[in-house]
C-alpha cells in the first residue's frame, strides 16, 4: 500500500508548491474550502473532494443488518472480555432502557440512525437516490398510514422486496425531530437527508409538517430493535432470542407488526 | 462526524445500546466503504463488514475521542486489507476477477437477496472514488484518510507509519496530479 507512493527518500526532489498554494491545498484537505471558493485550477479537485464526502447511498448502508447481528452476538456473549466492569448488568438489547440516561438527545439520534436501520427502499428515499416516480411513491407511503398496513399484510415472511412502506413514518418523524431538536451534527445529517427527501432545502419545513407523529406506542428507540430483527431475517440469519424479548415467530419481524399493525395507528 | 455527542454515544454503544451503535455505524460506514473502494475495490464491502466485526469485539475496551475512534476504525480496516491481500498472494493462480474469498463466503448478507434493490448509487461519489483510485496508491490513501476519514496529518502519519512531512507531500502531490488528470479529461469547466 505504501510501497508505490511517495517515499520519504524522494521528498527532496519534490518541488514544494508555493506557500499560498500549499495553504490552498491544505484547506481543501481539511474541508475548509468550498469549490466556489477554490481557485479556477483547483475547483475541479474541490468538487471531487466534495463528492467524496456526499451523503451515503443505499449500497453504503446496506450492511447495517450484518453489523447489527455482529453487535448483538457480541453483546450477548457471556463473559465478554470487554464488559468486565458491569458483570451483573443484563445485556438487554432494548435500547430504550439503556438509552434513558442519555435522554432526549440520543433519542433524536434515532432519526439519523433510522436511515441506516430502515429497509433499503426507505433509506433510499432519504438519500434521494430513487428515481422520481419511486420517490413520489415513497413520499405517498410516508404520508399515508394505510400503506403500511397493506404492505405489512402483503409481505409475509418479510424476505421479499423492501419492507420500507411499513415503517417510514416514524423514521421521517425521527429525522424531522432530529433536525429540529438534535445537536448540530445530528441536525446536519438529518437536514441533508430531509433536503433530499423533501426535494429541496426550502421544502423541508413543509415536508416535516406533513409527517405524522408516530404515536406513543412507537417510540423511536424501540423501533431500532424491531426493524433490525427484520434486517436479520433479510440477511438469512436466525435471530438470536435474548431473555425477555418475545420472538414467537422466528424471523418474521412480528414485533414490528404488533407495534405497528394495520389500523393500530394511535 | 458525530461531534460533541461522541463521548455519550460511545459509552452507550459500549453498554449495548443499539441506537448508539447505529449512530456510530451510520457515521463511519460510508467513509469506511469509500476508503476501502480505493484500497481494495473488489473486496470493499466484505472488508468493511469484517472490520465492524473486529471493531465490535474490541468496542468495550476502546478509550479515546472521536479522532482516536476514527483512527482505530480505519487502522482496523487497513489491517484487514493487508491480511486479505496476503491471503490472496498465498493462493496461486487465482485471477483477480475470481475474488470471492472463502473466509468471507459464508458471511450472510454480503450478497443478500435484495442486492438488486440496492443497485442505485451516488454516481458522483463513485466517479470521485474512481478518480482518486487512479492516483499512485499512497497519494490516494492519504487523500482518502485526510478527506473521507477526516483524520489530520499527524493521525494519518501515525496510521501509515510515515513522517507527517511525507504525508503532507503525498497529499499535495496527489491533489496536483488529480488536478492535471481532471483537466486532461476535460472535466474543467
What does this structure look like?
The complex is a heterodimer of chains A (266) and B (189). Chain A is built from 13 helices and no strands. With 266 residues, chain A is an all-alpha fold. Chain A starts with 18 loop residues before the first helix and ends in a 6-residue tail after the last helix. In chain A, 47% of the residues are buried. Chain B is mainly α and 189 residues long. Chain B folds into 2 domains: 3-90, RNA polymerase sigma factor, region 2, helix turn helix motif (Rna Polymerase Sigma Factor, Chain: A, Orthogonal Bundle), CATH 1.10.1740.10; 126-189, Winged helix-like DNA-binding domain superfamily/Winged helix DNA-binding domain (Arc Repressor Mutant, subunit A). In chain B, 67% of the residues lie in helices and 0% in strands. Chain B is built from 9 helices and no strands. Chain B has helices spanning 6-14, 18-39, 44-58, 66-90, 102-105, 123-133, 137-148, 153-160, 164-184. In chain B, helix 2 packs across helix 4 (66-90) and helix 7 crosses helix 9. Chains A and B meet through helix 1, helix 2, helix 3, helix 4 and helix 5 of A and helix 1, helix 2, helix 3, helix 4 and helix 6 of B.
Give a quick summary of the entry:
The complex is a heterodimer of chains A (266) and B (189). By secondary structure, chain A is mainly α.
How many distinct helices of chain A? 13
Q: Please tell me the CATH architecture of the largest domain in chain B by its name.
A: Orthogonal Bundle
First-last Cα distance of chain A:
56 Å
Number of strands of chain B: 0
- Share of residues in helices of chain A: 40-55%
Contiguous runs where pLDDT drops below 50 for at least 5 residues of chain B: 93-119
In oligomeric terms, what are we looking at? heterodimer
Main β-sheet description of chain A: none
Low-confidence stretches of chain A: 1-14, 79-169, 214-266
Q: Structural class of chain A, please? A: mainly alpha
Rg of Cα set of chain B: 18 Å
Order of helices and strands of chain B: HHHHHHHHH
Report mean pLDDT of chain A, rounded to a whole number. 54
Beta-sheet strand percentage of chain B? under 5%
Q: Which pair has the most extensive contact?
A: A-B, 96 and 95 residues
Would you tell me the overall average pLDDT of chain B? 85
- What's the overall geometry of chain B? globular
What separation lies between the terminal Cα atoms of chain B?
31 Å
Amino acid at each position: 500500500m505504501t510501497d508505490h507512493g511517495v517515499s520519504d527518500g524522494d521528498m527532496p526532489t519534490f518541488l514544494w508548491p508555493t506557500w499560498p498554494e500549499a495553504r490552498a491545498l491544505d484547506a481543501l484537505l481539511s474541508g475548509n474550502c468550498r469549490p466556489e471558493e477554490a481557485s479556477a485550477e483547483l475547483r475541479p479537485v474541490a468538487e471531487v473532494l466534495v463528492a467524496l464526502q456526499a451523503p451515503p447511498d443505499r449500497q453504503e448502508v446496506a450492511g447495517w443488518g450484518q453489523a447489527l447481528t455482529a453487535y448483538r452476538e457480541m453483546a450477548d456473549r457471556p463473559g465478554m472480555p470487554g464488559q468486565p466492569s458491569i458483570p451483573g448488568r443484563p445485556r438487554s438489547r432494548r435500547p430504550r432502557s439503556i438509552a434513558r440516561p442519555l435522554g432526549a438527545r440520543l433519542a433524536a439520534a434515532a432519526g439519523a440512525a433510522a436511515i441506516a436501520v430502515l429497509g433499503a427502499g426507505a433509506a433510499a428515499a432519504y438519500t434521494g437516490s430513487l428515481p422520481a416516480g419511486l420517490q413520489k411513491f415513497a413520499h405517498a407511503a410516508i404520508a399515508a398510514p394505510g400503506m403500511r398496513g397493506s404492505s405489512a399484510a402483503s409481505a409475509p415472511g418479510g424476505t421479499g422486496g423492501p419492507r420500507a412502506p411499513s415503517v417510514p413514518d416514524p423514521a421521517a418523524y425521527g429525522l424531522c425531530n432530529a433536525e429540529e431538536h438534535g445537536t448540530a451534527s445530528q441536525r446536519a445529517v438529518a437536514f441533508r437527508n430531509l433536503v433530499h427527501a423533501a426535494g429541496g432545502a426550502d421544502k423541508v419545513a413543509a415536508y416535516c409538517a406533513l409527517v405524522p407523529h408516530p404515536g406513543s406506542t412507537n417510540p423511536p428507540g424501540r423501533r431500532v430493535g424491531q426493524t433490525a430483527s427484520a434486517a436479520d431475517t433479510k440477511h438469512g440469519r436466525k435471530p438470536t432470542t435474548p431473555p425477555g424479548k418475545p420472538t414467537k415467530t422466528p424471523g418474521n419481524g412480528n414485533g414490528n407488526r404488533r407495534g405497528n399493525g394495520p389500523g393500530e395507528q394511535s | 462526524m458525530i461531534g460533541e455527542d461522541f463521548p455519550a454515544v460511545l459509552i452507550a454503544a459500549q453498554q449495548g445500546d443499539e441506537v448508539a451503535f447505529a449512530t456510530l455505524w451510520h457515521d463511519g460506514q460510508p467513509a469506511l466503504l469509500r476508503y476501502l473502494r480505493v484500497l481494495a475495490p473488489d473486496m470493499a464491502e466484505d472488508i468493511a463488514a469484517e472490520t465492524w466485526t473486529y471493531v465490535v469485539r474490541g468496542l468495550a475496551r476502546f478509550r479515546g475521542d472521536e479522532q482516536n475512534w476514527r483512527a482505530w476504525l480505519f487502522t482496523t480496516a487497513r489491517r484487514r486489507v493487508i491480511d486479505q491481500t496476503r491471503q490472496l498472494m498465498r493462493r496461486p493462480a487465482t485471477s483477480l476477477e475470481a475474488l470471492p474469498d472463502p473466509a468471507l463466503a459464508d458471511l450472510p448478507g454480503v450478497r443478500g437477496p435484495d442486492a438488486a434493490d440496492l443497485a442505485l448509487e451516488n454516481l458522483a461519489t463513485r466517479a470521485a472514488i474512481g478518480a482518486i483510485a487512479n492516483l499512485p496508491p499512497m497519494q490516494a490513501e492519504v487523500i482518502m484518510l485526510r478527506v473521507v476519514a477526516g483524520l489530520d496529518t499527524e493521525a494519518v502519519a501515525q496510521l501509515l507509519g510515515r513522517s507527517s512531512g511525507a504525508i503532507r507531500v503525498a497529499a499535495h502531490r496527489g491533489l496536483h496530479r488529480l488536478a492535471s488528470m481532471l483537466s486532461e479529461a476535460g472535466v474543467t469547466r
